[in-house]
Amino acid sequence: MTNSSRIKIPFNKPFIAGNELRYITDAVITNGHTSGGGDFTQKCHSWLVRNLCGSAAFLTNSCTAALEMSAILCDLRPGDEVIMPSFTFVSTANAFALRGARPVFVDIRRDTLNIDEMLIPSAVTPITKAIVPVHYGGVACEMDMIMQIASANGLFVIEDAAQALLSTYKSKFLGTIGDIGCLSFHETKNVISGEGGAILINNKMEHNLVDKAEIVWEKGTNRKAFVEGSTEKYTWVQLGSSFLPSEIAAAFLYAQLEYAHEIAHSRRRLTSLYLEILKPLEDSGFIKLPQIPGSDFNSNGHLFYLLASNIRERSNLIDFLARRGIMAVFHYVPLHSSPAGRKYGRVAGDLPVTDDISSRLLRLPLYFEMKDNDVEIVSEAVQEFYTG
């Protein structure tokens, strides 16, 4: 393991964008409110609805919590099935397995590394209740076809947009296309609050999801109706949990949201620079670089990866970069091959692309305060590894 003191270019670096510390002080001293649901929570909700053109938004403790909340809202029960990619973080599956539902793993596309929409219909069964597209790296899944499949089969669509804040598909923001969208503000994401997330409710009318979300978000109580005076009793009315983050986290997050567009612009520029410098290596057949299918897909520049020839080459490259003070990491171990994945889920067909890509993918450093020179140093080290 490389000593952290030798790392010159980290994989990720938390940052202050603007008024984070001032807003935390305002929350504690001026507003005198540190638990969830205060002024900064409401400001974050308003920002998300206004900037993403969504219906309703609720901050959560994490994207994991947002996914767990979505499972409750969709009334998932033991015996139900939920279709998702195997190439994703464990939370995508955990959230539904906790309700007793079975994750059904589908292979991914080679270009976007997103769920292969052409394989979804064959994975649908009479007990399927939802599809969970995961927008890998902030690049959109093929949402038109996914929504058509869901509509034809009466299924919920829950977008795992953890990495996709401000990414779009055909000019629609990711997380606002399906019935529900889930965002992450973990410190590794574009916009951060340490830990944190949000759930976006896009389906206003059917299933009364917004009304249900208010109750589930408030620990399963009718607190909102009680505060508004529309009910005389404040009581437990359905399943819920403590999904609200603290007002301190919301204050930090709101300061980041004020700079969200600038942050996305900076990361897009850095990913473009990586692509420009490393393209000759791809042209020479040494590596494969990320692909975006066309103008319908607009990424937020969340991450940058390359595909090595095999797992041994990837390991050697990680070690080579570490010796030069550069931290690079691999990504997901496919869920279908994990002990819990085998126990709680099932595989729909073969997953050759997932198995192949997961063994070769290497993520390079990318963070808001990264400079062009840092990208050049990393890229030159990758070039040295391959060409000497």
Task: Give a structural overview.
The protein has 388 residues and is α/β, with parallel strands linked by helices. It has 2 domains: 137 residues, Aspartate Aminotransferase, domain 1; 238 residues, Type I PLP-dependent aspartate aminotransferase-like (Major domain) (Aspartate Aminotransferase, domain 2), CATH 3.40.640.10. Helix content is 39%, strand content 12%. The protein is built from 14 helices and 13 strands. It has an 8-stranded mixed β-sheet, sandwiched between helices. A 3-stranded antiparallel β-sheet has the order 7-6-10, with no helix packed on it. A two-stranded antiparallel sheet has the order 11-13. A hairpin with a 2-residue loop joins strand 6 and strand 7. The mean pLDDT is 94.
SSE order, one letter for each helix or strand: HHEHEHEHEHEEEEEHHHHEEHHEHEH
Overall strand count:
13
Radius of gyration: 21 Å
Number of helices: 14
The largest beta-sheet arranges its strands as 1-9-8-5-4-2-3-12
**Approximate shape:** globular
CATH topology of the largest domain: Aspartate Aminotransferase, domain 2
Overall pLDDT metric:
94
Q: Could you say which structural class the secondary elements and strand pairing correspond to?
A: alpha/beta
